[in-house]
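Onboarding guide, step 5: your first structure request.
Type a short instruction followed by the sequence, for example:

Predict the 3D structure of this protein.
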Amino acid sequence: MTILGFDLSGIEFAEWWRSVWTFTEGRLLPTVGIILIAAFVYYPVRWVVKRLETRLAARTTTDLDDHALRMLRRVLQISAVAWAAWRILDLWSLPRVAATMDALWITAVAFPVSGFVGDVLDLVERRVVQRTSTALDDTALPLLNKVVRFGILAFGILLALDRVGLNIAPLLAGAGVMGLALSLAAKDTLSNLIAGVLLILDRPFQIGDRIELWNSPAETGSWGDVIEIGLRATKIRNPDNLVIVVPNNEIMRRDIINYTMSGPHIRLRIPIDVEYESDIEEAKRLILAVAIETEGVKSNPPPVVIVRGFGASGVNLQLRVWIQEARTRRAIADQITERVHTTFAEAGIAMPYPKRDVYVHHVPTQEGALGR
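The system replies with structure tokens like these:
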């Protein structure tokens, strides 16, 4: 008999067939048994986990349990198939291929684990985005999600390479050197990126908050409203409509003064000085009257005036008032200061200013001056 140009009618074919049958005769039944065991694990596990997913989805409001059961189902199914393939390959005297199957199992399991971690981070991302109005978390959290997923997959692949006998030490060393070089080259960018992520977690301010500035231009306002929080920098608009871009790393290194974070009302401290000869009680009464009549000043807690100390030219008083809106603090302070000055002038209370007394102990005569 000739098939494809080969003569298979000789004694060699019969010997070959006999050797094949001898090799496979004792392995066919165990192979079928392994496949049946794997199928017995694969399909019932799939059915049971799906039933659990359906029941838990109806009883719970979170999707975390659904993602966990989905990951468990995929891992068990992959493990059942990989175990069956590994046992069959080992049974058929293919140990090297069986070792490769072990590595493939590790790689395959890394995918559902990576997907589960990504789903958990998605849930966290949605909750954070709902609580904040910044655009930073919309960019940083998906980036973090992708990095974590890629890291899990890379770790699984490295473990698989180690299982097949490949030396991964040079790969790790090369990755470490490359990572060090990249981190040094992009040191400032990475620092700002990490600071941006910390701004999401700490949330010292949000878009619309009024904060104090550090490096504002000369002769401009020293505070501003946050208009954008980015991955690299934060944009703040000052009272002169100038947008100041501050690197996130610079923000995290300084004390942040937020005027509106704790609520719209804050307390003002306005220094007012009077001469030593003035009536302090009358000055306090006039200051309190001006403060109460100023629009935007809260009556509860009531304004108070205290004596802070004694200056070089007069008594240092301080008006402390609570205002209804923090954004109007400069305007209210200006109104109170101007009206107090006018009221003091009408009441005859003088405000101090530097004075110097000059004493001349000796005046030279005209002849003595000419003689010189």
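Each response can be followed by summary notes, for example: Residues 28-179 form one domain.
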